[in-house]
Amino acid sequence: MATMRLDKYLARSLQLSRSAARALIRSGEVEVEGLPCRHADAAVAASAVIRYQGRCLSSPQEAPGYWMLHKPASYLSATRDDHQPTVVDLLPVHLRAGLQVAGRLDKDSTGLLLLTSDGAWSHRLRRPGRHSKVYLLHLAEDVTAAMLQAWLQGVDLHADGLARALAVEGLDARCVRMTIDEGRYHQVRRMCAAVGNHVLSLHREQVAGIRLDPDLAPGQWRPLSLEEIACVDT
Ligand code: URA
Q: Which atom of ligand 1 is nearest to 133's Cα?
């Protein structure tokens, strides 16, 4: 990082929105190298001494953030919504800037959700056919051998064409673990409906090589490890 705008520096250093950072600058309480500065677009060096209300701010982190969240039911996989809670509301305010959801879950679905401010990583993760996702499903009807076979051979999602499971494991009469490598709209629910069954609960256990951390209760989150970040191919 050579230089950046003062409002960006403050936003990152204090984990604020850009407009909140500009309000601080307008207040006249921000100093750059000992002098008050009211210019949001002032170029400041990473090494500059920036103070707010006399407190010296630390240089902002340029590195993007990568988080895993145990998504509870009833939260939208979105970064903002005027009426309903979103998954981003579960993270502290200072981590929310620039975050995007890397592969959505339906509002009623639970389990592993990845969030990042690295747009390229998120894009790579969501490319069809590149990364598998594993879901634990509870179904309304008993799972028959014909259903298992149909999922593996491919079921017709009409305008969306054929959708195939890479693997399906029957765990008990109405519970299966299904692996797919695409992410079409409501894909798993529609694959179940296509064979005459109905999903009662859908929980994502794994995406690429990243498994939901069993220590995370619903609503809890943690940063990804470097190993987990590297599970998404380049
Ligand atoms: N497929 C679905 O139908 N719903 C999800 O939440 C994820 C995959």
A: 8
**Residue located nearest, by CA, to atom 8 of ligand 1:** 188
Q: Which domains does the chain have, with CATH numbers?
A: 3-56 (3.10.290.10), 66-127+213-233 (3.30.70.580), 133-207 (3.30.70.1560)
Find out whether 108 and 117 touch, Cβ atoms under 8 Å: no
Question: What global pTM score does this model have?
Answer: 0.77
Report yes or no: 25 and 38 within 8 Å, Cβ to Cβ: yes
Across the chain, what does the average pLDDT equal? 91
Residue 106 CB coordination number (10 Å)? 16
Contact of 14 with 75, CB cutoff 8 Å = no
Mutate to test the pocket of ligand 1, among 74, 109, 126 (most ligand atoms within 8 A of CB): 109
**What is each CA distance from 230 to 25, 66, 153, 154, in whole angstroms?**
38, 11, 31, 30
